[in-house]
């Protein structure tokens, strides 16, 4: 054979192989697209399409069986709204090829095991619902599904129950029942009775510690705020009493009853129950958010009742759309409005309720608050005829109910409302608020409107807000944001003025830093002696004259804008460091900042962030300052809590990052060590370089560990200080009330408790490692039960 | 990642590939279509809703050193900048639809308008009257730029 011919043949072969591969991909792509699209809008009937698709697939089954089954499996889990479409398809294939149904179940259950292992609990629930739906298309034997559910419910009878874990199993069974309930009840009535009894007993004996902390409103008027499992259970029971009739799920398999009549059904493959592992994070419980009922909807389809399963199914689908499209607010808005069942429900009301439910969700809202805000703006813009009206109605309802609203949600509401105004020229029914000017300064609605106005001022310019808001409301508009410099030339003279003038002049003359330092350090450390001070005179915590003069002058130098302030801080960092050297002085520094920017809370926030980044002020000092006497008036204002969260985020973020880095490096080291071990066993030669490499990696890991430990300690310290201060403040309140024989549960007291809970909820992961420390040292049984409750509510979210 | 838009800085000094790579790990955004009177504080307020802002650099008129309708916003984290492109891009600030674009990071000098007038080139090409951006197009009149806030439109 000549060399040339040999080559030719080789090349030919290669080309053929390639072509064959392309063909294979073509067929697979075509199948995938066909399977993917079935159930979407089409000119032919769904039943027709399904039958045709089943015929096409039947022809391809001999060659592409594994692939086809895999695609159906993926489609069914990725499009939960079409599970009945796919269960019908699998049913049709099972009729044509008995083995195919069996293989499909094996594949599905294998997949499910992996999904559970990775902790994707929600996805797993949808897969189990799909398996359950397969009893309707005669693929699965009802008794085997019953067995699976029995195994799930057996978890509720384990010793040392972890409630979030057993909840998940019960929840999963309940979630499957709208699909499979009727078939199960028809074929295995007595087993079902037993199942329902077990669920009922479990739900009645469940701990409900978590519920109070998860409610948006403390009142059940006008709408019951129910625990999620209780609510779903009521909906399922009602569904059962209605003979499993509902109008939301499309069930294409109903038309194939005859075809399915002689199908062979399979038992479900064995499915081991997930073992109790410490590090598995089960979904925390929640409370169902309700703000509308049928009386709120003036026309069109009626709102399904709170215990109608349709209400649940609609909410579930809407939530899924939101969670799928959260990265693209425009697409999200358009998908929501394309909701398939829109003629059966008041869609706009359902959407608005679901979005607010997410925004107010406790312990934390699933996405950034701004996402929900921008989504509502896009909905308003794209549906001008309907959404703005419903949203205005919703806003008014929320506003009416702020008296009983949880403090955390109240502040989310303030932030959202002022943002929403900023997108629509601050138009509101401001005239309706005029009556508030007559109310007492403690009135929640009055305080609410003042906070909203303050937020509006931050996003707009002052005069614009004054133009939009009616004049009679202007008394509620906070003063124009401006600085208050104590050492203006015209206000002197006093020793402070002289020192300030000296410092300003030297700065203007561009004197070297050494000279400035000497100048500042010659200012006496005595309490500042101004008469018009905001600081009370007999308090030992008055800032020293030195800090006051130095920091006031720096802030004044940068008062023109944030950039100017940052430049001044950078340029004169040394000066500030030389006067702020311990915790007390750090608090003084913050006090000067607050006095300087008392009319501009946003600047207090921005500068505090900066001081903490520069490590001139530490988180602990900020916390002690926040809880100090001087702060009593500002303690409950939104801006202070925004700063606290900003401080806590910084304290936790860095640790989180280093922890992740450490984990990565550790895995790399393990791999290197494994490799080395193997090579040693095989006695290969390349050992030396590896040892060096391992040593370097070891040092890196050690470096990260060394870095992490003090940071973790510091972080722990921050939280402990914070919780201590909370407990002290609450105890003082309780003692005062007992002394004066007053009701303990005042609005202030409740607000502080809500804030304490907010800290627990927002940083639940970070705080988790300290639970036992907190339990033994801080939240002990001698602590007042109001306070202890908050700690227990927090613990109930993960146990 | 919220996909990159079509905008690319015309004065980038490296290769196209380097540019794309820098943009995909960037923490900085270019923000355009601002009113001349929008302040740094307002920008902080809006952009802090997705994460802590490290720095805002106001775009300035090269000659007059006054704001000329754009800025750079730098975050500490790439992820935060990404969320700004998702939820702030295309929304309103001082009643103007602002737009954000990924940027390679601020370099001294880029804070100045690149137009002949000293402001942004786009203000020399626009044809309509824009009260939020100095009124008439710059090309017609280089002097008369009234950058005070407009009066409120009578509410509808």
UniProtKB/TrEMBL annotation, chain A:
Q: Where is the MIF4G domain?
A: 28-240
Q: List where in the cell it is found.
A: Nucleus
- Compositional bias per record (Basic and acidic residues), positions renumbered to this chain: 1-15
Q: Which GO terms describe its biological process?
A: 7-methylguanosine mRNA capping; mRNA export from nucleus; nuclear-transcribed mRNA catabolic process, nonsense-mediated decay; primary miRNA processing; RNA splicing
Q: GO CC annotations?
A: nuclear cap binding complex; nucleus
In the record, what terms sit under GO molecular function? mRNA binding; RNA cap binding
Q: Which domain of life is it from?
A: Eukaryota
Coiled-coil stretches? 648-682
Q: Does the keyword Coiled coil apply?
A: yes
Query: Quick one: where's region Disordered?
Result: 1-21
What InterPro entries does the annotation carry? Answer: ARM-type_fold (IPR016024), CBP80 (IPR027159), MIF4G-like_typ-1 (IPR015172), MIF4G-like_typ-2 (IPR015174), MIF4G-like_typ-3 (IPR003890)
Name the Pfam families for this protein: MIF4G, MIF4G_like, MIF4G_like_2
Q: Which UniProt keywords apply?
A: Coiled coil, mRNA capping, mRNA processing, mRNA splicing, Nucleus, RNA-mediated gene silencing
For whether the record's keyword set contains Cytoplasm, the answer is no
Q: Which family does the similarity line name? A: Belongs to the NCBP1 family.
Q: What is this protein called?
A: Nuclear cap-binding protein subunit 1
Q: Look up and give the organism this protein is from.
A: Paramuricea clavata (Red gorgonian)
Automatic annotation (TrEMBL), chain B:
Keywords, ordered alphabetically: mRNA processing, mRNA splicing, Nucleus, RNA-binding, RNA-mediated gene silencing
Note the superkingdom of the native organism.
Eukaryota
This protein is called what? Answer: Nuclear cap-binding protein subunit 2
Record-linked PANTHER family: 20 KD NUCLEAR CAP BINDING PROTEIN, NUCLEAR CAP-BINDING PROTEIN SUBUNIT 2
What is the native source organism of this protein? Answer: Paramuricea clavata
- Which BP terms does GO give this entry? mRNA cis splicing, via spliceosome; regulatory ncRNA-mediated gene silencing
Protein family membership:
Belongs to the RRM NCBP2 family.
- Presence of the UniProt keyword Iron in the record: no
Mind telling me which GO cellular component terms the entry cites?
nuclear cap binding complex; nucleus
Where does the record place it?
Nucleus
What Gene Ontology molecular-function terms does this entry list? RNA cap binding
- For region Disordered, the annotated ranges are 110-156
Species classification: Eukaryota, Metazoa, Cnidaria, Anthozoa, Octocorallia
């Amino acid at each position: 054979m000549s060399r040339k011919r040999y080559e030719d043949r080789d090349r030919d072969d290669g080309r053929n192989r390639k072509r064959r591969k392309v063909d294979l991909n073509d067929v697979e792509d075509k199948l995938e697209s066909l399977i993917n699209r079935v159930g979407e809008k089409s000119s032919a009937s769904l039943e027709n399409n399904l039958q045709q698709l089943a015929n096409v697939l039947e022809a391809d089954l001999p060659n592409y069986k594994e692939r086809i089954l895999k695609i159906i499996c993926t489609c069914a889990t990725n499009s939960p709204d079409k599970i009945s479409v796919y269960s019908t398809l699998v049913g049709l294939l099972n009729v044509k090829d008995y083995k195919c149904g069996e293989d499909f179940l094996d594949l599905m259950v294998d997949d499910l095991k992996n999904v559970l292992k990775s902790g994707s609990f929600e996805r797993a629930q949808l897969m189990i619902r799909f398996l359950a739906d397969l009893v309707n298309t005669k693929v699965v034997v009802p008794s085997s599904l019953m067995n699976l559910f029995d195994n799930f419910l057996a978890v509720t009878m384990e010793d040392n129950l972890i409630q979030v874990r057993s909840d998940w199993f019960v929840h999963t069974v309940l979630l499957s029942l709208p699909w499979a309930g009727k078939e199960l009840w028809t074929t295995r009535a007595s087993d079902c009775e037993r199942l329902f009894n077990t669920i009922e007993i479990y739900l009645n004996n469940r701990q409900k510690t978590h519920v109070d902390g998860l409610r948006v409103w403390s009142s059940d008027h006008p709408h019951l705020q129910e625990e999620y499992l209780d609510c779903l259970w009521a909906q399922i029971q009602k569904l059962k009493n209605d003979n499993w009739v509902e109008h939301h799920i499309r069930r294409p398999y109903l038309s194939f009853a005859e075809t399915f009549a002689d199908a062979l059904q399979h038992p479900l493959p064995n499915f081991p129950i997930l073992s109790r592992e410490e590090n598995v994070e089960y979904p925390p419980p929640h409370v169902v958010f309700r703000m509308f009922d049928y009386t709120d909807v003036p026309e069109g389809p009626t709102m399904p009742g709170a215990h109608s399963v349709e209400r649940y199914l609609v909410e579930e689908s809407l939530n899924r759309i939101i969670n799928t499209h959260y990265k693209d607010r425009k697409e999200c808005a358009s998908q929501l409005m394309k909701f398939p069942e829109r003629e059966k429900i008041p869609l706009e009301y359902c959407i608005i309720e679901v979005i607010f439910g997410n925004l107010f969700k406790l312990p934390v809202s699933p996405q950034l608050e701004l996402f929900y805000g921008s989504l509502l703006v896009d909905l308003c813009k794209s549906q001008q005829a309907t959404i703005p009206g419903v949203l205005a109605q919703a806003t008014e309802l929320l506003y009416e109910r702020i008296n009983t609203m949880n403090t955390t949600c109240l502040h989310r509401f303030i932030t959202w409302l002022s943002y929403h105004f900023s997108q629509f020229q601050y138009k509101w029914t401001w005239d309706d608020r005029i009556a508030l000017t007559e109310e007492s300064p403690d009135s929640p609605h009055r305080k609410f409107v003042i906070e909203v106005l303050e937020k509006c001022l931050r996003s707009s310019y002052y005069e614009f807000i004054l133009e939009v808001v009616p004049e009679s409301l202007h008394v509620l508009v906070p003063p124009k944001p401006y600085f208050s410099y104590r050492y203006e030339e015209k206000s002197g003279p006093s020793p402070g003025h002289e020192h300030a003038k000296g410092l300003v002049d030297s700065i203007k003359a561009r004197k070297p830093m050494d000279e400035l330092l000497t100048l500042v350090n010659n200012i006496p450390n005595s309490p500042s002696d101004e008469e018009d001070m905001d600081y009370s005179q007999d308090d030992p915590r008055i800032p020293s004259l030195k800090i006051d003069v130095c920091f006031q002058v720096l802030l004044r130098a940068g008062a023109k804008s944030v950039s100017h302030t940052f430049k001044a801080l950078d340029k004169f960092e040394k000066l500030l460091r030389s006067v702020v050297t311990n915790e007390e002085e750090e608090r003084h520094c913050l006090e000067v900042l607050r006095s300087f920017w008392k009319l501009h809370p946003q600047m207090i926030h921005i500068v505090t962030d900066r001081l903490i980044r520069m490590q001139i002020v530490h988180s602990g000092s900020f916390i002690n300052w926040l809880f100090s006497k001087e702060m009593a008036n500002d303690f409950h204002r939104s801006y202070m809590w925004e700063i606290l969260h900003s401080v806590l985020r910084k304290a936790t973020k860095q640790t989180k990052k280093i922890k992740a880095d450490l984990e990565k490096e550790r895995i790399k080291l393990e791999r290197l060590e494994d490799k080395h071990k193997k090579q040693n066993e095989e006695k290969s030669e390349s050992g030396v370089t590896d040892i060096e490499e391992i040593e370097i990696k070891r040092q890196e890991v050690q470096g990260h560990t060394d870095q992490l430990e003090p940071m973790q300690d510091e972080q722990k310290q921050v939280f402990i200080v914070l919780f201590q201060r909370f407990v002290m403040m609450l105890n003082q309140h309780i003692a005062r009330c007992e002394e004066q024989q007053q009701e303990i549960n005042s609005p202030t007291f409740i607000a502080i408790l809500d804030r304490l809970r907010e800290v627990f909820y927002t940083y639940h992961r970070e705080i988790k490692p300290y639970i036992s420390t907190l339990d033994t040292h801080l939240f002990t049984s001698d602590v007042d039960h109001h306070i202890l409750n908050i700690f227990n509510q927090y613990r109930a979210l993960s146990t | 990642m919220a996909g990159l838009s079509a905008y690319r800085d015309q004065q980038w000094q490296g290769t196209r590939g380097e540019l794309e790579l820098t943009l995909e790990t960037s923490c900085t955004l270019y923000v355009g279509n601002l009113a001349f009177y929008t302040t740094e504080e307002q920008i902080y307020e809006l952009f802090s809703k997705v994460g802590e802002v490290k720095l805002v650099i106001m775009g300035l008129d090269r000659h007059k050193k006054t704001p000329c309708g754009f800025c750079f916003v730098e975050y500490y984290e790439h992820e935060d900048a990404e969320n700004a492109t998702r939820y702030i891009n295309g929304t309103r600030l001082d009643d103007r639809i602002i737009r954000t674009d990924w940027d390679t990071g601020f370099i001294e000098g880029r804070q100045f308008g690149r137009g002949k007038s000293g402001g942004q080139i786009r203000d020399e090409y626009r044809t309509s009257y824009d009260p939020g951006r100095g009124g008439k197009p710059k090309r017609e009149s280089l002097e008369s730029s009234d950058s005070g806030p407009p009066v409120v439109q009578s509410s509808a």
